[in-house]
Amino acid sequence: MQEHDATHIDTRCIHGGQEKCEVTGAVMPPIYTSSTYAQESPGVHKGYEYSRSHNVTRYSFERAIANLEGSGLSREQDTTNGGFAFSSGLAATATCLEMIDSGDCILAMDDMYGGTYRLLSRVRERSQGLRPIYIDMTNLDSVASTVKEHKPRMIWVESPTNPTLKVSDLEGIARIAEENGAIAVADNTFASPMLQRPLEAGMHVVMHSATKYLGGHSDVVGGALVTRDEEIAQRLRFLQNSIGSVMGPFDAYLCLRGVKTLAVRIQRHCENAMAIARMLENHPKVERVVYPGLESHPQHEVAARQMRLEGTPAFGGMITIFLKGGIDESRRFLETVSIFALAESLGGVESLIEHPAIMTHASVPAEARAKLGISDSLVRLSVGIERVDDLMADLERALDAV
Ligand SMILES: Cc1ncc(COP(=O)(O)O)c(C=O)c1O
After folding, report:
1. Is the model's pLDDT at 377 over the cut of 50?
2. CA 322, 324, 325, 328 torsion: positive or negative?
3. What are the boundaries of each domain within the chain?
4. Topology of the domain comprising 262-400
5. Fold match between 9-260 and 262-400?
6. Of all atoms in ligand 1, which is nearest to the CA of residue 222?
7. Nearest CA to ligand 1 atom 15
């Protein structure tokens, strides 16, 4: 089964880009651990030379994610249909950044994963001479005017953002990029291809931390890039092999296994998160709830248009709350939850909770955090797929202790 354009995305999670093993009929690809492949004569081989460049298990995951993101590239245009897997999300980002040159300007979202910010501001500014400009991309006019003025070669948007859940209009940003000859990249980690497919909105490249919803079980670290553009696919193939931060075959197997249940997991994440957001919205100990599904979210309308589960608006499993009080109240709350694990990361079947100012976004300077509203009372929830009543009871109990 190779062509899946006519099938629903739920079915493509399981079959997209996959084929049964020609030798054994194995339904799941074996984990190919071989680092090298025997050649019949120098240069005469079966398309596999060395595992950094060619690995069957990695290819399977790469084709799966390319299919889900709707790359539209055939195997003739690119061996893995424009999908590329890396050893982590940041390795994917780092490789993607190599498409632009020393001294180039990159326009980036002001609020984004702290590690992406750190890579741009503390590594690539120094080593590659990149000139990042951070702006709030929820405002398309400001994107258009900044692009006109600074002529960035790449536009890097995250939507929804980590951790303040800002939602940007991907179609609008892609249009501005296209008109100005910039490569538009979307970090789709928070939404997953179940809810949002940036390539269909006109973005050139999609990036994922596969560690999150794609893997889905908090047992693997990985990253992915997908492009719909044949020329970009050629460049990424060259860079993936030249830089070498590839996903290993064991991890590719876990990611592929995770993707198979993405549809059912995301549906439950969305249902649980919506119910919890509504509950927290009315809680006296909570100052404010940020969830794209709430009417109070500043970009709720964009989110409802852009994030959809089989045509119906759906908003993912991430919620950000501001507690009443400060660091002491946050600490007590985070120490008291018991089903929610106090841990970094997100997107797994189990619910996680964390404090970005101290944990995931400590690498963002305090001044920049303050500007973005990442305060001591901000707590981020990754709502899992447990029974929602148990999750609500856990949060109620912890809020009572605050
Ligand atoms: C939105 C987002 N992008 C990128 C990354 C980086 O991915 P990784 O941790 O797999 O390197 C993360 C990690 O938390 C993230 O949340």
Report:
1. yes
2. negative
3. 9-260, 262-400
4. Aspartate Aminotransferase, domain 1 (3.90.1150)
5. no
6. 10
7. 113
Class of the domain covering 9-260 = alpha beta
Q: Let me know: does 91 contact 84? Beta carbons within 8 Å.
A: no
- Which atom of ligand 1 is nearest the CA belonging to 158? 1
Report pLDDT for 4.
Answer: 46
- Ligand 1 site residues (CB inside 6 A) read 88-90, 113, 115-116, 158, 162, 187, 189-190, 209, 211, 221, 223
Give, for 206, the enclosing helix (H) or strand (E): strand 205-209
Distance, CA 216 to ligand 1 centroid (Å)? 13
The catalytic residue among 12, 212, 369, 380 is: 212
Q: At what angle do helices 262-281 and 388-400 cross, to 10 degrees?
A: 40
Report pLDDT for 6: 64
pLDDT tens profile 60-107: 999 999 999 999 999 999 999 999 999 999 999 999 999 999 999 999
Question: 127 CA to middle of ligand 1, Å?
Answer: 21
Question: Looking at the whole model, is its pTM more than 0.90?
Answer: yes
Active site residue 113: yes
DSSP string, 276-317: HHHHHHT-TTEEEEE-TTSTTSTTHHHHHHH-EETTEE---S
The radius of gyration of the chain from alpha carbons, rounded to an integer in Å, stands at 21
Average pLDDT over residues 253-277: 98
| Ligand 1 atom closest to 115 (CA) | 6
